[in-house]
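Homoserine dehydrogenase
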Amino acid sequence: MNAPHTTVSDGTLRVALLGCGNVGSQVARILLEDADNLAARIGARLELTGIAVRSIDAPREAELPRELFTTDAESLVEGADIVIELMGGIEPARTLILRAIDHGATVVTGNKALLAQDGPTLYERADAAHVQLSYEAAVAGAIPILRPIRDSLSGDRITRVLGIVNGTTNYILDQMDSTGAQFADALADAQRLGYAEADPTADIEGYDAAAKAAILASLSFHTRFALENVHCQGITSVSAEDISAAKDAGYVIKLLAIAELLKDEAGDDGVSVRVHPTLLPREHPLAAVRGAFNAVFVEAENAGELMFYGQGAGGTPTASAVLGDVVSAARRMVLGGPGRTETTTGHVPALSIDMVNTSYYIGLDVADQPGVLARIAQLFAEHGVSIETMRQTIHPASDVGAASAELRIVTHRATESALATTVKHIQDLDVINAVTSVLRVEGL
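Structure:
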């Protein structure tokens, strides 16, 4: 392993860029167009030595000098002081990042999937090599959230982080809320506008948000969490009827990434990391986050409540986050000293979703008969789940079916396990046609 670059001897830092998609092309453009301004802030020039791509002739978002492009990523990495990885995916990104770290280069990445799957390996390798691994762009695009958690709040104790960290799902849910659209129609609209990919699975099933939740939890609680520690549920089961009922009750539904400090059964600290559709009171700050925007709400013992809001995706906004990491790392290299490592001093265990204690929203389709409400309320009481509000809508009998009622129940706080047991027993009642939805409620 080569010695890390900790000082700048010739006034220049060599930068290798891996990937030239929407974000990478904007990073390259800024490095070239704003070279003088960046040099003034850093105290050294950033020299873009090359851009590794799969195809040199592929169309780009920005006009860039052809001579910068190469398909030889390995050689480019070995000659760099700073490596910016924006290829995405697991391989070859992982191998190239490890090669850069072993070479002694600072690494800046926006690869949330890789960090969530194999972040601990990368962090440990960077620690051992005394180099910096930065990844502000991996969560919430242009929003500066990771550095504030890592640095500004390092003297505080974070207790909970709630985030809207996926613009695609936020746009879909916002359209359903504001226009009454069905899920499929809102998704098609998001795809037409470029907010959703042709294959939107990673977004609508919550996988993208789960990767970001693992990163947020790792920084917030000084423990390395991986994707396998995150309970994940997407938005495909959220119906227009759910949205409408939530709206009538004063709530909005958002896909939230949540990392929360809890107590386990023995009274010891643990962390729940989860992603799922969530009802929020409309007065909650996150409820007002519209369209494809992102926001992260942080609760700390001394700082109280903080919210970070802004563009969560897009080439130029995300490039801003990448360049923020590059300038910060380059400035450190000019001044000398080891890379900034993670403050993973704790070893707080990840808790099962069963340990979560929150409120719930349950939708039921039931027979319109005397005594139904009493039987349902009795089951809730038997399992220690208290009902806060209940709304009933009667559907009269028709040629296609008997009379039925639609019940919308919001509970007081209860454990996930108690709620699951309650719902299971409710499903067994002969007066229940269907449990139409079970959603968690936050912000009460």
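The mean pLDDT is 90.
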